[in-house]
Amino acid sequence: MEFHIKVVSLFWLVILYGDSANGSKNPCKVAMWQPTSELQRLSLAPIVVLGVTTGYTTDDGSVFHARFSVSCVLKSDDIGVKQNITMENIFPRTMCSGSKNSLQKGKMSVVGLQRLESGNYDYYEKNPLETMAIDGDYTLLHNISNTCGLQNWTVPLGSNESECPICAQDFGFIGNETCMMGNLVSGNCENVPEFKIFSVCDCSASNRNPTVLSKGHRSSLNLPLLLLLGGLIGILR
Length: 237
Hints:
Elements: E1 28-31, H1 38-44, E2 47-58, E3 64-75, E4 84-91, E5 108-115, E6 121-123, E7 133-135, H2 138-144, E8 200-203, H3 223-236
Antiparallel strand pairs: 1-8, 2-3, 2-5, 3-4, 5-6, 5-7
């Protein structure tokens, strides 16, 4: 079965405000927001990799980067991806970001990336509030292997492997020798509608830590705001 990226036409026309932890008013405005699936977000990223976070580095003790060991390049541009890469500025991030605290050391993840002029990488966060670092479990990889635009798997530069080592036994399925590389089918994606995201998240330049309603962040929202959101969500349903 081959997955196609479904075009979503429903938008959440809301603007979110919240109170930061110190009580100051730091708005982060999200307009035309639409929920997306993991496959939809990954399909838009120029580069998608599977690997493990091996550690963190910092330049001045306030901005942190992640060292990442790539085991498989699931999608790439015309430039190869090395086995060991650095993802810049994973912490702190603006409250528009849904990828905060997503890269945990030793954890296997599928990450949607973009290249930086420095030669390193950053999250490709096209849609606000939704993460681009997703748990690299068997189900996700199986679905990716059947998704148009995400089926050109290659080993990273510097790897000793001849193909991506993504097999059922790697995920604890004892006795199952099924490997996904042999199941990849580059289907005809020419007639598949292009998935687009129109969401915009704008944080005031004067606010260092703007607050929005997002996963992993606890904000103090006032009652009128909750009632407004509840009413809008009810209408959209």
